[in-house]
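Private note to self, pasted from the team thread so I don't lose it. Backbone tokens:
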């Protein structure tokens, strides 16, 4: 019983949440850590070694066979006993097999590049979402402080007989509702941090959890910390971006490489029809008792066979499948290219809209609403307006602030989606405009 009580006290005293070390890192640090240590990426990199070993295996020669032939009894008289080797020589297959393996190696490398790029985009997105969650928490906490100030003002005015007790009750209700939102958002911040660590995904036995160095992004003017362009920067024409993107997109290059793999596989499968040559050679001898001359005799033998003659089976199904795989790869390439253009167009338009909305907040809503809430708070303190009016104004102001925060997050995430579609990690607007 005492042990149970002690454990209960420890749980009550210790703060809830992750007890290990929390390390704050910048976005660039997060990208570097993920590329260096991400478990999934490390596992994917092993595919390169596997593909390289397959290239070596494809260049193999056939292992030889040991052949012996001994005659026992009277049948051995006048017939030699033999021991030797035979070797199958592949005709026109080894080179085709090696080229197929090398094409698959190149495909593996391109897939790994895509995985690395996608990993970086996932980390960037998780970082932005974590900063968003933290900033929303700051917005709610700021609103909580404002309501606490209003509660104090309301209490003073009630004490002075200027307003009814209902003002205090109304403010307390709004404040209590906000406490619930703050607690929920704190949980959202923790969840976003876990998602951030999930994206980085390194093996550290749970001793370290990473947190975003940035607690907000509302006051950033250069956008450098989040590796994004300024909202005022001009985006190049879509046609220019599309032309460059179709050259650089990993999925298009992968689809093109898959066509090359399919074509080389067709060559390799077709060459299975070519017969192979089996060479034989060895030592032969006859003992005195088996020799017709009564003398020991020895010598060598050599021979050659044509094997794997496509007489009963001509590999027709395999060749037909290989041809269909070429056609299939070409269709997939066309499909990937068509989808890429549409996805790129969608990401381009979404980013333009996100830029427009963010600039509208900067140019119009934020400044005016900030001045409005200051005036409203002052008027209530001086008895020039009601509490209901002030709370409505305050909610409207905080809604605008939250909207601006979400507009910033949308801007960053739309930029990340745009980067995913152009398949360029560091997209320079000025260079792309040239």
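Design output:
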């Amino acid at each position: 019983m005492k042990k149970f009580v002690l454990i209960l006290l420890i749980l009550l005293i210790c703060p809830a949440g992750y007890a290990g070390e929390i390390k704050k890192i910048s976005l660039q640090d997060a990208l570097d850590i993920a590329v260096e240590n991400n478990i999934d990426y490390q596992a994917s990199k092993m595919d390169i070694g596997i593909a390289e070993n397959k290239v070596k295996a494809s260049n193999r020669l056939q292992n030889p066979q040991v052949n012996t032939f001994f005659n026992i009894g009277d049948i051995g008289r006048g017939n030699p006993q033999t021991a030797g080797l035979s070797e199958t020589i592949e005709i026109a297959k080894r080179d085709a097999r090696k080229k197929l393996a090398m094409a698959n190696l190149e495909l593996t490398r391109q897939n790994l590049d895509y995985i690395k790029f996608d990993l970086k985009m996932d980390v960037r997105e998780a970082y932005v979402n974590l900063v968003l969650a933290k900033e929303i928490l700051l917005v709610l906490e700021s609103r909580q402080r404002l309501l606490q100030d209003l509660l104090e003002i309301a209490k003073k005015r009630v004490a002075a007989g200027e307003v009814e007790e209902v003002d205090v009750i109304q403010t307390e209700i709004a404040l209590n509702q906000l406490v619930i939102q703050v607690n929920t958002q704190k949980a959202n911040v923790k969840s976003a941090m876990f998602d951030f660590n999930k994206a980085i995904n390194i093996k550290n036995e749970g001793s370290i959890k990473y947190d975003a160095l940035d607690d907000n992004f509302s006051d950033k003017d250069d956008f450098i910390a989040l590796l994004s362009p300024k909202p005022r920067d001009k985006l190049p024409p879509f046609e220019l971006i599309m032309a460059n993107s179709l050259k650089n997109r990993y999925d298009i290059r992968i689809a093109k490489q898959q066509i090359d793999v399919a074509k080389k596989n067709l060559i390799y499968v077709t060459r299975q029809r070519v017969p192979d040559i089996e060479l034989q050679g060895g030592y032969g001898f006859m003992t005195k008792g088996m020799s017709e001359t009564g003398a020991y005799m020895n010598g060598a033998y050599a021979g050659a066979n044509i094997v794997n003659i496509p007489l009963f089976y001509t590999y027709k199904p395999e060749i037909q499948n290989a041809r269909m795989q070429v056609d299939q790869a070409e269709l997939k390439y066309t499909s990937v290219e068509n989808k890429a253009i549409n996805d790129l167009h969608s990401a381009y338009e979404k980013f333009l809209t996100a830029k427009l909305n963010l600039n509208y907040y900067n140019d119009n809503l934020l400044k005016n609403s900030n001045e409005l809430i200051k005036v409203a708070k002052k008027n209530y303190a001086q008895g020039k307006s009601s509490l209901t009016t002030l709370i409505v104004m305050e909610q409207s102001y905080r809604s605008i602030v939250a909207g601006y925060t979400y507009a910033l997050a949308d801007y960053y995430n739309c930029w990340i989606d745009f980067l995913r579609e152009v398949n360029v990690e560091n997209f320079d607007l000025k260079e792309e405009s040239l």
